[in-house]
Amino acid sequence: MRLLRMEWSQVGIAMAACAVWTATAVAQTDAPTQTDTPAREQSRVQPESEPADSGTDRASDEAEGATPQAEEPPTDPASAPVESNGADSETGGSQAADTQTGDSTTTTDTSAAESSVDVSTGNLSTTNLNAAGPQATTEQTSEDGKDSSKNAEPATKDGPWTFLGAEWKPHAQVRERLEIRINNYAPGPNDSSEVHFVTSRARVGLEVNWSAVRLFTQLQDARNLGAAPPADNSNASTGMHQGYVELRSPCKCGWLRLGRQEINYGDERLIGALDWTQPARSFDALRVHLGNADSPAELDMFGSILRDQQRFEIVTMAPDGTETTSMGDSNGDYLAGMEFSWRPVDFLTIQPYLIYRHDGPIADNPTRDRDIASPGLRITSPGIGGFFYTLDGTLQFGKVGTNNHFAYGFAGDVGYKIDSPARPAISAGVALASGGSSAGEDADQFENFFPTNHKFYGYVDLFGWRNIIEEHIKVALKPKSLPFTATFFIFNFGLQDGDAPWTNAGGAVLGQSDESGSNQLGQEIDFVLSWKPLPGVGLSGGYGLFIPNKGSKRLGNEDPTHWMYLMFGGKMGS
Fold it and tell me: pTM here?
């Protein structure tokens, strides 16, 4: 199936039309100061919203109120040939197999450098926090999977300051986390060894609300403790994490936002803020939202520049050793998304969505040319008599170089919450994604885009939504009278395609073989305990164990791997 290529100008026209609508609404109405926001709306307003209570989330509360996850490394998924969250077979700097050709390539992309925590070592590599591409590696979704950034009309009556006719709200956060990994599978110098590290994040921000205008800025410093000696900041990432202007309609039925911002779609399986990693992820984007949390229907659209236009030098080596130089051009890399949410009844939400991505040539791969469209449908219910469920499925079409791209992914969860003081909940689910066998040109690995992976596929971070067959059971306790949350998981993992690579949450290849054999990789057990003694302050810890089966041993990973963490955090302001 031939994908009709979407030019960026068409995305701009659509966004401009929405901008005109919003601006017209603002001009025609006397915009009163926003002084009230429904409780349901507030839970989705803030950049650091407190998670709501629901059995659909796959993790307990993190130290300062978000949700803990295992780690996946933030690299540049915009340039990955198939997988898009971590080691990039074209540009990520790690060796990986190209699912189009089966060849192994190793290159380095310096055009969109980022700050990252390497899952194989835990080290925070730092280049440029403000690079054009988002940092691809966790999460900010509330426990019911809703995007906390979708409705950004805050309740200004609680603002601490009023100055020059505007509400001023400061925000601050500090988070410290110790992690230990034993028998780490990720390739590199720390393979099959013990790795321990402490990461840190500090954020300060300011939100200003004036009539129909909202301004938000957030500065961030993320680092590995001990990586930078005194008086040396070279191994830390410090810069603007978010900075945008937002225009709101006076009827509280829509807004337009322009600038660097976090974006969460659905429950973040394909687009997420990746809040667990200390650098997290944000996009340079124009975003338009119609409707609010009390509307039966909402429409959200965004367009993001991942890498700007470039002109680069291409060096070609002839067989006789002669070098020739030429110039190449790229129109850049782009990402666009659209999500429609319809709530026909209170206990059901239907969300059709479409994600489109274009990757152009780069210096390390001057022939790179990729277009992928991913239409999907997500159906979720927060609870019917104690039962809850989520279903998410998507198909993908497009071109990768000269090859057609076709892939698919499905995930589902169903559970039951027991009405008792301990508030126990038990759920079970599955996930499936195509692997991309090299046997045919039209069989490609599922494109994971910019996800939050590890809250879904095990905290040890050995899997993402690519070439996977996964089943799990989750048990959670959230007592009403105690500030504790305990969560227990059991996973079973296998490869959808035994000839395609096994990649971890960040996209690094953990194994691949042309020989036939078992695709059953193993089981994982995770346990997380969180304690919140005060509002905005908390402590959490967890342990994960992956037990390899025949499939893992066939691919060279014979020993169990362990992961442990302890995290403390605190935040001020919402």
Answer: 0.75
